[in-house]
Amino acid sequence: MPPCLVARNLAILHLTIWRAVESAGEGNEESAACAAAYTVCTTYFSGDRVGFEKLLTEFPAAKGDVFLLAKQEAEKILESRADDGANTTVHYKPELAAGIWQRTTNNRPPELPHWQNVKPFVIASADAFRPPPPPALESKAYSKDVALVRDLGGKDSAKRTKDQEETARFWSDFSYTDTPPGRWNEIASQSVAGKGFSISKKAKVFAVLNVAMADAGIAAWDCKFFYRFWRPESAIHESIDDRNTLTVASTDWKSLLPSPSHPEYVSGHSTFSGAASRVLDKYLGKPSELIRVTNPDMPGVIRSFGSFDEIAAECGQSRIYGGIHFPTSNREGLALGRKVADRVVTHYSEP
């Protein structure tokens, strides 16, 4: 699924598990967690029902009255999100003007142009933390952004190192792969495993993590379709129209990674990562050992990090090496994600 939809569904899944566990009472947590997870998963991923049914048999506790009560609680939460706007569609026709996002060479239609209208889980509104606009086309800051991406993010770049190219591909996580929310759940699973947390504490960490990323996605898409800023590919091809004497048009320039089919500003990867890293830092603190991250599409490649912030920083930077985001979009995306996460953490710290 696209990253925003992944984040939304995972938020519902883990929020449901946490609420079920909290209401189950001591000794019944595992049964409640199984019931909640099974109910949500078979609703949103119905094509895998047989697999979920098989998985359920591996948990002996997943039966009895507690299971049925938790399943009913899950159904209530699913019903409460049924009309949250995720399933609506809107028609989006890009404006033909310099600086405005257009379909790029992959020619895919805009992805989820309605997502800023989805009901947030915690933040007051999609635009509650909306960043300032991207640099003006005529500005020196904009020309620096363009020059850096042109040098490091081109398909045939001679300035990008082998490690930078590996970084770009390692964190690509486009729609219909693990996506950033999925990857951060894997990182969280690894990091929580050795903490000795109770089921309830684990459930809360994953609930807050995924709610923060879900709201971060809504906030990022609000920013994207409010400013509608063009991708580096368009900016470099059409520099003749940007009224900036410091940029030079190059119609044969291609980005290392294909441009995603939505506006450039802010970076979704950075926003998801800013939110996730802030939540994990709040609940887990600085890791006692290196976090080793893998990518199923790159067997044998392991990247190691000393903190969650380091992971977020590299994930955001990877989009510059891939030629699909400007540095400003990375910085503002990370900051936006952290602001959303702070609000979510505060919300779930209140009585």
Short description:
Helices cover 54% and strands 2% of the residues. The chain contains twelve helices and two strands.
Can you walk through the features of this model?
The chain is mainly α and 351 residues long. The chain is built from 12 helices and 2 strands. It has helices spanning 3-24, 29-44, 49-56, 64-80, 140-153, 162-170, 179-193, 199-227, 232-237, 268-284, 308-321, 327-347, and strands at residues 291-294, 302-305. Strands 1-2 form a two-stranded antiparallel ribbon. β1 and β2 form a beta hairpin. α1 (3-24) crosses α4, α2 runs antiparallel to α3 and α8 (199-227) runs antiparallel to α10 (268-284).
Write the layout of secondary structure elements.
Layout: H1 3-24, H2 29-44, H3 49-56, H4 64-80, H5 140-153, H6 162-170, H7 179-193, H8 199-227, H9 232-237, H10 268-284, E1 291-294, E2 302-305, H11 308-321, H12 327-347
Antiparallel strand pairs: 1-2
